[in-house]
Write a structure and sequence with these properties.
- The structure is a single chain.
- By secondary structure, this protein is α/β, with parallel strands linked by helices.
- Among the domains are: 1-86, Alpha Horseshoe (Serine Threonine Protein Phosphatase 5, Tetratricopeptide repeat), CATH 1.25.40; 290-395, Alpha Horseshoe (Serine Threonine Protein Phosphatase 5, Tetratricopeptide repeat); 404-560, Rossmann fold; 586-755, Glycogen Phosphorylase B (Rossmann fold, 3-Layer(aba) Sandwich); 830-942, Tetratricopeptide repeat domain (Serine Threonine Protein Phosphatase 5, Tetratricopeptide repeat, Alpha Horseshoe), CATH 1.25.40.10.
- Helix content is 58%, strand content 6%.
- Strands 3-2-1-4-5-6-7 form a seven-stranded parallel β-sheet, with helices on one face. It has a six-stranded parallel β-sheet with strand order 10-9-8-11-12-13, sandwiched between helices.
- Helix 25 links the parallel strand 1 and strand 2.
- Helix 14 runs antiparallel to helix 15, helix 16 packs antiparallel against helix 17 (292-304) and helix 25 runs parallel beside helix 26 (461-469).
- It is globular and about 130 Å long.
């Protein structure tokens, strides 16, 4: 009983105290509302002295302590409140918020859940639980909490917004858009909702929508710097570098510590070719905040500038990061390859194999594919898989243009439209190899379009020669991938040939949209593009292994009969005479890019140097101007006992002429492997320097073989490491053999198909026509066997007639006039007129009518060769190949100089996969053209 009476006394006492402190509480809250925290605190402390167990006083002291940054003190107050009043919801909630700020998520969850148990509609507790689960990547749980929030309050905009943010991370963009639109509908001034609508629009390529949303953000808040940055990204993607720079500069003007905007400015100036400014902005970005992407970009730029030692230091910083993606490690690997630090390169590959693929970094990864082609640490199948994964990710979600119906509606028998796309339609290795193919196309059958992916100011004499020989030349560097694809599509290109592969300046992402019905990769890159929407790859029968290895390509291979390369030489630089009985030292050399150099090559070269007394080795590459690179190479030779004095560093020369003249000091060139030289091999042969090459399995490992095979120089081809060493030694110790080779290499080159672009061009044209015919046939069949090709005439389905000429039994022509036996002159005029009619019928696609008319003229002197030709061509147009060849061979017996007949016969052989016969026709056409050219010169001289 005493206990009970004592309790009642205490309760009465607390009630009296609460009554006394109520005015103080009201005064403290008023001061708190005015932001006068210090005075509010004094008032609540006074109240606490009067009523030490008053939960409201303690709670407000906790609130004030938290506002003033005294977090531990605030927690103590809330804990006291809970000990006095275990059902004080706000104290549980505020304790949870402190723990959330301290990233003590599990403890925070307990207090939020306690708040909800006491107050089931505690909306902010649900909201903050959603934040925590989102941070922990428990996306479904987070969304369920936010959905609970909006079920309590359907106008809680931030809950909709946060669900949208989670959906962005899950790449569920369409659902996210609906949530952000709901957010903005409820609150039109919701900046983050508008910004995220812009962000998604940018991600999915709806740039115009993105720009509108970002401009709405800036109209509400002109200091929203991220909106300026993202507008810059959009215009940079569209190649509008000036506009992009303008927005980035606005961003850094508002926030001088905005490192990402400085980084993006660096990218703009790098794209403009202003490397000094790019370096400055990259450095500024890294000074503000060291980031992985900043380090990778600065590293790449310094490699472009040949500042390899600085690139080395930056790469070491990159490798300090944990959990690097494949793209980051590929860039690091590239640094060490260029520096010839192969041990570190191998270490990076060990990390690379287990690193995750970053879809957003796939283009950075692809920037290292060229180095992978010569990498002995990765298997060929691994390299192929990386290419195909890049292709899969690039094509993912990209809608391809539709062509089939449009193709079938085009005029039959028209010229084929061929497009060439390249950043190198100028004086460049690719420019040397493609110029003469473009300029030698048959303008009567092909319309050539060229798309130069470089600034017009960087065009040169090569560019002009290409311009002069094609129907249309467009500079497309300023176009986005989508815009470029639209241009090609609207030009109605039939076959698009891209010449870059995964090299600088490629536009493969545009080709992922399939702007042309047939797409081909050729020349610029020694491996697959990885894109399933590129249909073919042009190579040759020597540069590729057997068909059992074709699975590594995403494209179908077109194996040319001769070398896939063709060019017209390197100007007037003349090789020096080489003494047959030369005495003194033997000079080996290699002028290939050091990215192709491997420790295995140095091992074999060292064996050669060891075996050849008084021999030396000359190396030439731009990287050799860096001391570290040369020291690494010297060290690698040193492992095999070759001292530095037997090596010579030729460094970099500014002009091709100076470069070529250095070959005059080389006796024997040694090719790199597993990535052979291409243009460097042609240079050496042009300068009469024999090149020993080692044949491998991939295209990159077989280009040297293809070149030498076409020059009838198989004596320089090795199929094993020991044979490679033996052939090099044999040459070095047999000056007579070297003299004999040096006396005929340039001659062999000039006489080969490599220096006869008309031969290569004709075969390429035949191949293009064949794949086009196959494509049209497939599309026609896909429309249904009873369908007629739109715009064409119905074909006569009757069995083909005999090829023997149909004679008029009455000896009269169709008009009833006298036959040629009675009036030869008049008959000749009539026959010529009929032949012209047959040709018109042929041109208009009325093939049966053309055949009927031409049959009447087959035995007429003077008309007969062309009549047989028209008959053969008509059969060919109807797909009757055997009859076509029989008629065309009749025509060629009567007129062996009919290049048109040879051409069609060649095409038929090609369709029938009779490559050798087709090649014979090509060579005959080339000979006829050469004879015609010689006759023109003779006539001019006369």
């Amino acid at each position: 009983m005493r206990t009970s009476n004592g309790k009642k006394k205490r309760e009465r006492g607390e009630t009296r105290k609460t009554g006394k402190v109520s005015p103080l509480i009201s005064a403290g809250l008023s001061l708190f509302g005015q932001g006068r925290l210090a005075k509010a605190k004094k008032v609540f402390e006074k109240a606490n002295k009067m009523a030490p167990l008053n939960a409201d006083v303690l709670y407000h002291l906790g609130v004030i302590a938290r506002e003033q940054g005294r977090i531990d003190e605030s927690k103590n107050y809330y804990e006291k409140v809970i000990s006095i009043d275990p059902e004080h919801v706000n104290s549980y909630f505020n304790l949870a918020c402190i723990l959330l700020d301290q990233k003590k998520y599990d403890e925070a969850i307990k207090y939020y859940e306690k708040s909800i148990s006491l107050q089931p509609d505690c909306i902010n507790a649900y909201y903050n639980l959603g934040i925590i689960e989102g941070i922990k990547n428990n996306h479904e749980k987070a969304i369920s909490y936010y959905e609970k929030v909006v079920s309590i309050d359907p106008n809680y905009t931030n809950a909709y917004h946060n669900i949208g943010c989670i959906l962005i991370s899950l790449k569920k963009y369409n659902q996210a858009i609906e949530l952000f639109k709901k957010t903005v509908l409820l609150d039109p001034s919701h900046l983050d909702g508008l910004f995220n609508l812009g962000y998604i629009s940018m991600i999915i390529g709806k740039n115009e929508e993105a720009i509108r949303y970002y401009e709405s953000v800036l109209s509400l808040n002109p200091r929203y710097v991220t909106a300026y940055n993202n507008l810059g990204l959009i215009f940079q993607k569209e190649q509008n570098l000036d506009k992009a720079a303008e927005y980035y500069e606005r961003a850094v003007a508002l926030d001088p510590e905005y490192s990402d905007a400085y980084l993006n400015l660096g990218n703009v100036f790098r794209a403009r070719g202003d490397c000094a400014k790019a370096t400055e902005y990259y450095a500024k970005s890294l000074e503000i905040k060291q980031s992985l992407v900043g380090l990778v970009n600065q590293t790449g730029l310094q490699k472009e500038l040949c500042n390899y030692e600085e690139a080395y230091d930056l790469t070491l910083k990159v490798l300090e990061y944990e959990n690097l993606k494949k793209s980051d490690l590929a860039s690091a690997h590239d640094t060490f390859i260029q520096l010839c630090d192969w041990d570190k390169a191998t270490e990076v590959i060990d990390r690379f194999r287990s690193a995750p693929m970053d879809p957003d970094g796939r283009d950075v990864l692809a920037g290292s594919f060229m180095e992978f082609c010569g990498n002995t640490d990765l298997r060929l199948d691994e390299i192929a898989c990386l290419h195909k994964e890049w292709g899969r990710l690039t094509e993912q979600g990209v809608i391809a243009f539709e062509h089939d119906k449009r193709i079938l509606e085009r005029e039959p028998g028209r010229k084929l439209k061929i497009g060439y796309l390249s950043p190198d339609l100028r004086e460049h290795s690719v420019g040397y190899l493609i110029k003469d193919i473009i300029t030698h196309h048959n303008s009567e059958e092909f319309e050539i379009f060229c798309y130069g992916n470089f600034d017009e100011r960087n065009g040169d004499g090569f560019t002009q020669a290409i311009k002069n020989s094609c129907r249309d030349f467009k500079y497309v560097f300023h176009l986005s991938d989508h815009q470029l694809a639209q241009v090609i599509f609207h030009d109605e290109i039939d076959i698009l040939i891209e010449l870059a592969g995964h090299t600088a300046g490629h536009r493969l992402r545009a080709l992922a949209k399939k702007p042309a019905p047939i797409q081909i990769t050729y020349l610029g890159y020694p491996n697959t593009t990885g894109l399933s929407r590129i249909d073919y790859r042009i190579s040759d029968r020597f540069a590729e292994s057997g068909p059992d290895k074709d699975y590594r390509y995403s494209e179908e291979l077109i194996r040319l009969t001769n070398c896939f390369l063709t060019f017209d030489g390197f100007g007037d630089v003349v090789p020096i005479e080489w003494e047959q009985k030369r005495k003194g030292e033997v000079i080996f050399g290699c002028f290939n890019n050091l990215q192709k150099l491997t420790p295995l090559a140095i091992t074999l070269w060292s064996r050669i140097l060891e075996a050849v007394y008084n021999s030396r080795f000359h190396l030439k590459a731009k990287q050799l101007n860096t001391k570290m690179v040369w020291e690494n190479i010297v060290k690698e030779f040193g492992k095999h006992g070759v001292p530095e004095h037997r090596l010579r560093n030729l460094g970099y020369t500014p002009t091709r002429e100076e470069h070529l003249r250095l070959y005059n000091h080389i006796d024997v060139a040694l090719d790199t492997f597993p990535y052979n030289g291409t243009v460097t091999t042609l240079e050496a042969l042009w300068m009469n320097v024999p090149v020993v090459t080692l044949v491998g399995e991939s295209h990159a490992q077989r280009v040297g073989y293809s070149i030498l095979k076409n020059l009838d120089l198989e004596v320089l081809v090795a199929h094993s490491e020991d044979e490679y060493v033996a052939k090099a030694i044999d040459l070095a110790t047999n000056p007579e053999m070297v003299f004999e080779l040096k006396s005929r290499m340039r001659k062999n080159l000039l006489a080969s198909p490599i220096c006869n672009p008309q031969v290569t061009t004709r075969e390429i044209e035949l191949r293009l026509k064949k794949i086009w015919m196959e494509y049209v046939k497939e599309q026609t069949e896909a429309q249904g066997s009873s369908s007629r090709v739109p715009g064409s005439r119905e074909m006569d389905r009757r069995p083909p007639e005999s090829l023997s000429p149909t004679k008029n039994p009455r000896g009269r022509d169709e008009s009833g006039g006298v036959s040629g036996q009675d009036d030869p002159f008049g008959h000749a005029i009539t026959a010529a007129s009929k032949l012209r009619v047959a040709m018109v019928k042929l041109r208009e696609g009325e093939f049966r009518q053309a055949m009927e008319i031409s049959r009447e003229l087959l035995d007429l002197e003077g008309i007969s060769p062309l009549a047989w030709y028209v008959l053969g061509l008509s059969h060919y147009r109807l797909g009757e190949n055997e009859q076509a060849i029989e008629a065309l061979e009749h025509s060629l017996k009567l007129d062996p100089k009919n290049a048109g007949a040879w051409k069609v016969v060649g095409e038929i052989h090609l369709v029938m996969d009779e490559i050798e016969q087709a090649n014979t026709c090509l060579k005959t056409i080339a000979e006829l053209k050469n004879q015609a050219g010689a006759n023109r010169h003779l006539a001019a001289g006369a």
